[in-house]
Amino acid sequence: MKLDVGSGGQGLNLEPAAVKDGILGGGAGNGLISAAGAEKLELEKMIEELEFMEVPSVFILQELWDDTVSPKTTLQQLILRGFSQRYLAMKKRSREAIGFLVNLDLDLTSREIFLQPAKISLMMDMLNEGSIDTKINCKRLISMLIERKVFNSENGSSLSLLVGLLRLVKDKRHPNGVVAGLGLLKSLCSFEAVRNSFISIGAIPHLVELLPSLSNECLDFALYILEVLLAISDGNLALKDCANTIPNVARLLMKVSDRCTQLALTILWAACQFAPEECAALAVEAGLAAKLLLVLQSGCNPELKQRSAHLLKLCSLNYTATLFISKCKLTRTIR
């Protein structure tokens, strides 16, 4: 059935099928009105969901007129990783190469190659920045060059070399490195230029501070180095200015060996002679007098006993006998 609604109007199909499933129908969605409504509802729902959704910053583009530079962290990490891998590979090759070299019996021509400025600089770099094994192998190579009389004072007085060895000696995590470093420093101190350079980098206070923690072998090396440095006036001054020189050295008397006792007495004697009044008072406070009496009572050689007697007399200059005995707590010892 059709209904005409006037001129220019449209005819509505009111057939049962049309009403049921057609334009006015409320069927399953095949009609135009139903489909459009459903689509509109879905779109509104999507918009609402997007409004509440947190959009990752990676999807937000920069404005075209924004000229600020964004950090490219991924690129930075790749570059850093690449250079790190190259550096580690180079360190590994250097470690392997130096390990091979120290085990070879090199002729004179081969040994002289290591004295080229570029080779010396490379060895210094490895001594300062390499692993503990690389540092020890560098020390062995330099020791070999010194023994073969190829390594001279000009090479040995390099500040980079001395600083690298001092770092090796101060690293208490590796006792074998401490022994190696002190052993090479002992050899290098035969050069006068090296002694001056070693004092200039402030090595004496560092060695004095290390004394209480060193092994017997290392103590022998360290005390020998300090004794050699006393031949220079700046060495005497540096030793006197170090607050722990007398206490740390006095503790070593009659503790390790006769040789260490002799070296310690030489160092104490030099310090007290350089500044008698100041050092004598420090020696008394450090209990040096009791240690010197032990040396006098022991079976040490006459030279050590004579040096101890002179040092004991020097310490007592500004005290009366009674005050000196009481100050040094020697009453029980003398009795």
TrEMBL record:
List the GO molecular function terms. ubiquitin protein ligase activity
**Organism's domain of life?**
Eukaryota
- Reactions listed under catalytic activity: S-ubiquitinyl-[E2 ubiquitin-conjugating enzyme]-L-cysteine + [acceptor protein]-L-lysine = [E2 ubiquitin-conjugating enzyme]-L-cysteine + N(6)-ubiquitinyl-[acceptor protein]-L-lysine
Summary of the function given for this chain in its UniProt record: Functions as an E3 ubiquitin ligase.
**E.C. number, please?**
2.3.2.27
Protein name in UniProt: U-box domain-containing protein
Q: Which UniProt keywords apply?
A: Transferase, Ubl conjugation pathway
